[in-house]
Input
Amino acid sequence: MPADTPTSLQAATPRKEAATAALADVAREPGAAKPDPVLVADGVVRRFGGLTAVNVDHIEVQRGAITALIGPNGAGKTTFFNLLTGFDKPDEGTWSFNDKPLNGVSPYKVARMGMVRTFQLTKVLSKLTVIENMRLGATGQRGERILFGLIPPLWKNQERTITERADDLLARFKLDAKRGDFAGSLSGGQRKLLEMARALMVEPELVMLDEPMAGVNPALTQSLLGHVKDLREQGMTVLFVEHDMDMVRDISDWVIVMAQGAVIAEGPPLEVMADQRVIDAYLGAHHDLSLAEIVEEEGIDAPELLSTDAPPSTPKDAS
Amino acid sequence: MDWDFIFTASVSYALGAVSVAYCLAAIGLNMQFGYTGLLNFGQAAFLAAAGYGMAVMVTTFDFSFWVGLLVGLLATIALALILGLPTLRLRADYLAIVTIAAAEVVRLIVRSVKFKETLGGSDGLQQFAERFYELSPLSDTFRIKFGPFLFSNQEVWVMIVGWSLVAAFSLITFLLVRSPWGRILKGIREDEDAVRSLGKNVYWYKMQALILGAVMAGFGGFVIGILFNAVSPDIYATALTFSIYTILILGGAARVAGPLLGAILFGFLYQFVDVVLKEAVAADYITFLDSSQTAQVRLILVGVGLMLLMIYRPQGILGDRREIALDAR
Output
C-alpha cells in the first residue's frame, strides 16, 4: 500500500509536477489570478478596535496544490484562517469556496462543504479515545440524530464502515497502537497527527492546517511533512500556515506572504524567499547589518538617505 | 440511641419517592453537565416549571390531570429554550450565570403576591393528583411494612412509577451516550470548536442536551408534586439544585449509574444525619442544638460534603481517576 510509505521528500510526483506546471505562468504578484482556484477571497477586512488585523484585497488558492501562508508573528495569518472557516466574522469582504459564497456561513457548514481546518493549539478531545476522536470526524452519520441514536441497529452497520476507514487512517498515521488510549495521553506530535487524521475523516477537498509543525519534534516533522504531501497526491488541496521556512521550501508549490494583515508577495517558494520585500518583512530591512554598521552607514550616507522618498529606517517620514 | 430506628428511617427515605425525584433530576443533569459539559445551575427551575405547569392547569383552570402533565412538559421545554437560545452560543460560564438567576426568577414569580390567584403565592397549590392515585392497581389497605415504617399504598404507587421512570431514563441515557449522538455531546464537553470544525452543528446538539435533561428533571418535578399532592415555591430553591449536583458528583458524573447510586446514597446520608442529630439531641448528647435546628445542620453538611468531594474525589464513586487526571496535563 503506497499510503504506508509517505512519498520521499525530494521526489517529484505526478501531482507535484501538475501543480508546478499549472502555477508556472501565474504572475508573481500579490493577488495573482490562478488557473483553477478552489478558494477566492476579496476585500476581506477584520478590525479589532483600531487595529486592522487582516486586510486582504484579493487572494486565490490553486486547486490540487500545496499553498503555504507565511508571514511574521502578528501578520494576521491565523485570523485570516478563522475568517475563511467561519470561526470569526470579518467587517468587510466576500469569499467563496468552489464558487459558493461563504459569507455568514457557520463553521460547521463550511466544514461540511469540504473545507476542513486544524488548529494552532491542537484540539484533541482528551477524554475520548483515539478511535472515538476519529469516528467523530465522519460526516452524515445516521446515529447522530437523537432518535436514530436510541436504536443501535439503525447505525451499527455504518459505524463499522466508519471504523474501518478510521483504522486505515490510523495505520497510515502510525497511531494504530494508540487506538484505545485516551487522546489526552498522546504526546504533542501525536496529537498533531491525530488532528490531521481526524480532519481527513470529514473527506475534505481543502485541508487547512494552522501551524502543523508547531511543537513537533524533528523526528516526527519528517513524517508529518510526508503526510501533508500525501494529501496532495490524493487529490486534496492544502493551505497551511507555517513559520518553519525549511518546511515551506520543502513541500509547498506556492507561497503567499502576509505582513501586517495584507498580502505582500506571492510566488513559488524559492522565488518568494529571495524577494526583498519578504526578507524585509520577516527580518527587518537591516537584518544583515550590525547596529554599528547601521549607525556608521547612516552617518556616512545621511544626505543621501534624506533625499530618497521612503528611507526604510525612518518609516514615519514616508507617510 | 435506637440504631435500628435510625437505620430503617434512613433506608426508607433513600428508597422513597423523594429520592426518586432527586434521581430523575440528577439523570437530567448528567445529560447536560456530565456528558455535554453544560453548567446548568438552574435545575430546580425545570422541576418547578413541570410541577407548577401541572398543578396550575388542574387546580386553577380545571383541566384534566393529563392536560396538566402535557402543559408541565411544555413549560419545561419552553424554559429550556428561553434559557438556551441566547446563552448556548456563548461560553459555558454564561449559561451558569443565566440559569442560576433564572431559577430564582422562576421561584420568585410563582411565590409572588401578584399571581396569588393563579399560582397560589407562598402557599403553593394543592389537590391535583387524585387522578394519578385513582390509576393505582394497589388496594386502599395495601401497605409495605419496613421496620417501624409503613409505605402507604399511595407512596408505593409513586415509587413504582418513579423507579420505572428512573429505569427508563437510565436506559435511554445508556443507549444515547454509546451512540454517535452521544459521541458528539462528549466531544462538545471536551472542545466545542474542534467538534464544530468537523462539521457538527454544536449549537443544536447543546440545545438538544439541555432540553432532554430538562424534560427528565421535569419528571422529577412531577414526582415531587404528585407525592405531596402539592407544589410550593420554596422547595425549588437553589439548595435543591446543589443537592442534585452533589448527588451527581457523589455517584460519578458521565456514568449512567452515577445518578442512581448518588441519589440512594445521598438520601440515606441526608436522613441519617438528621435522625442521628435528633436522637442525640433527644438523648442530651448534644446540648447546643435543639431538634428544630438539625435540618439546617444537614444542609451545611451537604455543602461541606460537596466541597470535600470536589477536592478529594472529583470523579465520584463510579468515576475513573485517570479521566480526571487528563485535565491536569
Summary: Residues 156-172 of chain A form the longest helix (17 residues).
